[in-house]
User: Which sequence fits this backbone?
C-alpha cells in the first residue's frame, strides 16, 4: 500500500504567527487512515510528486512511498 505524506501549509503559517510549534504540520496518509505529526522517517525509497491538478486534499506536491514510515511526534487528538 502506498503511503502519502503531506505538509500542511496552514499549520506552518499558524505556528509562525503564534511563535511556537503548536500544531503538527505533517500528515501521513496510509490508505485513508491519517496521522498528524511533526516529522517522518521513511525507511526506504520514496518520491516527490507534483500535479497541476490538486488532490482531494488540495495538495499540489506530496511524497509517496511503499516503504515503512515512522511518524515523529505524533499528535494526540
Assistant:
Amino acid at each position: 500500500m502506498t503511503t502519502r505524506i503531506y505538509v500542511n501549509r496552514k499549520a506552518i503559517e499558524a505556528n509562525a504567527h503564534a511563535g511556537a510549534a503548536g500544531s503538527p504540520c505533517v500528515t501521513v496518509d496510509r490508505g485513508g487512515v491519517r496521522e498528524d505529526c511533526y516529522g517522518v522517517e521513511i525507511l526506504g525509497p520514496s518520491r516527490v510528486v507534483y500535479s497541476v491538478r490538486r488532490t482531494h486534499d488540495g495538495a499540489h506536491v506530496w511524497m509517496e512511498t511503499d516503504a515503512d514510515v515512522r511518524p515523529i511526534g505524533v499528535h494526540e487528538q
Q: What stands out?
A: Helices lie at 9-18. Residues 3-72 form one domain. The two ends are 25 Å apart (CA to CA).
